Amino acid sequence: MAVESMTYPQRAAVAGRLSLLDRFLAFWIILTMAFGVGLGKLFPDVADAIDSARIGTVSFPIAAGLLWMMYPVLAKVRYEELGKVTRAWKIFSVSLVQNWLVGPVIMFALAWLLLPDQPEYRIGLIMVGLARCIAMVLIWNMLAEGDNEYAAVLVALNSVFQVLFYSLYAYFFVSVASSWFGGGEEVHISFWEVAKSVLIFLGIPLVAGMITRYVGIRRKGREWYEGVLMPRLGPTAIVGLLFTIVVMFALKGEYILDVPVDVLRIAAPLLLYFLIMFAVSFFMSWRLRFRYPETATLSFTAASNNFELAIAVTIGVFGIESGQALAAVVGALIEVPVLIALVYVALWARGFFFAPDGTAKTRIGARLATAEAVPATPARDSQPFKR
Q1: Where are the beta strands (DSSP E) in the chain?
Q2: Residues spanned by the domain of 284
């Protein structure tokens, strides 16, 4: 069949393909915020009791919620796919550049540009920008008809990189790079404080998730693990997130009601970040001649963030009543509806940048000037471990 006579795959309604929890996550977050504020307002003794049981700067209920919202996410990660990185080094190299160079720099620039007078919110946004996505990106990638195998490997790769480098990046961007603009002394961050929070709130659930995956697949098989256990365990991560937000807003809800304009100011750079990061990654991947599925995977991996980790670290380092923690929670609120919209954008842009067979066009919108005229990465090489 001629390329120009082919048609693009039928698009199902994106929102309709999400679970009830995922589809209305932004609404659930707003609802739990309101519930937490009401709980703290009507029953101040409950808030005091919650805050009395503390582990360092974190109350025990908050710590439990943070650990649980990370555990199901990390139990989903296909760590066994990491060995495939060397078999498709180009796409993974591009992803590392997008996630660990371009993304942090863009968020750092937006935070300083739009929140120069709010060091706590600014640092909270920087911490969000450093937390690369390891959970929801699998959903966005699937909805956008990206490459699920590559997405699984990229998630595993980002999980390892976060354990190794998140603390170092946080120290550099918050304490070192910020000092170049006169902000390094406003809020000091300790490398070891961040490292401790990462080891607790990422390291513990990471190990638990790896053990769960290894034991589950070994004893019950991959089909049971992926088809039975994960659909049941996975949604509980959102329950852990919502529980954490209820407790958090019960403790500091009154303060948040006093700063509605601040919430909007936090939302502005977040919105710009998601849009810019997606556009930059999509265009970069297209220019490098990746096929549409790989381009979609790279773009959503780069544009998404691990807000669970950002919330955990900001609470662990700065405390639950900090502006940094508030910024991280607003990040979770903004990301879901924006990324759903970007799924539609990706499916729409496919017709302009890619031929119906997925190869990159040489000119935007061109019908016949596809990768057949200028060689792209062959399908056989760009998808080396498709089953």
Answers
A1: 54-55, 58-59
A2: 15-350
Per-residue pLDDT for 51 more than 90?
no
Pairwise pLDDT comparison (308 vs 277), residue with the higher score? 277
For 181, 185, 375, the CA distances from 116, given in Å and listed in that order, are 10, 14, 46
Give the tokens for residue 218.
Answer: 């070994």
Q: What's the average model confidence in pLDDT over 20-39?
A: 78
Residue-level pLDDT at 155: 82
Q: What backbone torsions phi and psi does residue 19 show, to the nearest 5 degrees?
A: -70, 165
Does some domain include residue 9?
Answer: no
Contacts of 347 (CB under 8 A, 6+ apart): 11, 14, 144, 145
What average pLDDT does range 333-356 have in this prediction? 88
The token duo for 137 is 């990106």
Structural Rg of the chain based on CA atoms: 21
Question: What residues contact 188, with CB distance under 8 A and at least 6 apart?
Answer: 175
Return d(Cα 122, Cα 126) in angstroms, integer. 6
- The predicted-structure confidence for 89-109, as pLDDT tens digits, reads as follows 888 899 999 999 999 999 999
Which are the contacts of 161, defined by CB distance < 8 A and separation ≥ 6?
Answer: 96, 99, 100, 132
For range 29-43, the mean pLDDT:
81
CATH number at residue 20: 1.20.1530.20
Largest CA distance in the chain: 71
Q: Is the dihedral of CA 254, 40, 127, 110 positive or negative?
A: negative
Q: Per the domain annotation, does 319 fall within a domain? A: yes
Say what the pLDDT of residue 1 is: 36
The full length of the chain comes to: 387
215 pLDDT above the threshold of 80: yes
Contact in structure between 361 and 355 (CB atoms under 8 Å): yes
DSSP 276-341: HHHHHHHHHHHHTT--HHHHHHHHHHHH-B-HHHHHHHHHHHH-TTSHHHHHHHHHHHHHHHHHHH
Exposure letters 20-51 (e unless 16+ CB within 10 A, then b):
ebbbbbbebbeebbebbbebbeeeeeebeebb
Residue 266 located in a structural domain: yes
